[in-house]
Amino acid sequence: MSKNKQHLSSPLSEFDLIERFFKRSSSLQEGNNGIILGIGDDCALLQLGSSEVIAASIDSLVSGVHFFADEKPFNIGYKAVMVNASDLAAMGAKPRWLTLALTLPEMDENWLSLFSQGLFQALAETGMSLVGGDTTRGPLSLSVQVQGTVDKDKALRRSGMQEGDVIYVSGPLGGAALGLAHRLGNIQFNHDQKEKTLELIEQALCLPQARWQLGLILKDYANSCIDISDGLAADLTHMLRQSACGAKINLADIPYHLAFSSVNLSLNEKWQYALAGGEDYELCFSMNKNNEEKLLEKLKSKNINIFRIGEVISGDDKNLNFYLGRDEIKLNLSGYRHF
Q1: Binding residue per annotation — 227?
Q2: How high does pLDDT run on average in the chain?
Q3: Which residues of this UniProt protein bind ATP (predicted)?
């Protein structure tokens, strides 16, 4: 983190903030995980092997836009890491390094303690190291950049879909959307198992799990991949357009989040939440049918489930087509819009 100026007016200086909350065993990190020079200088120095490339991604999270103003600071720190690690997972990259730019309205040591706990728990779970960043005063927001490494010939892309590929997703969809809808008061859950259901959707919304371990496996089997952040319909459409392909998706094969069984929704409402709600942070990927059995066997040994939802069709049709059995279903879905 840069130390050339003090941004926040407080008895706790930026130097103190870094030392107390974010500089955890920096000297021990150096020499490990490719870190030549970690936190404390103007830049971090990171080793890169000759056969590898760096995969880099950055996301910004703004209070009142990406999370509620009263959200638990632990959740904010944890999710900030995981949503970025999900981008690395979609490339088949191994998560390595993270930098953090944090804007705070005031210096709140209790908030920072909880935030950093969530941040470092997610870092530990993904194998990443915090190597730098910045702080300043202003409305609460944060920007997180992550970097990972992947063999330059195996990096997954959105544009690799091929006609005849089978399409999979890595886990249940719609849980985060239901969690948000419940917080906004738009839906109510049935009393049976309500407490457990609320726990599940809160976890889906606030504590997503990046599928980076699956991503490391997929790079040897898949032709294309994307992480589902804006909703399956929107993100799969990105893949189709970049690959000049179309797709047939069977709505009966979508892995719907368990919470759907505890809320009374029409089919159209269910599809809207599951296919366009967003923030699932599962992976959607395609692969040649010849790789399907080998991948499933590999994942079975690691107790990882994936779900086949459709297939890639001719490049003459770049549309995303939904079916229920043999009947085509016309859906008007809209994913998350950033602006």
Answers
A1: yes
A2: 88
A3: 133-134, 158, 229
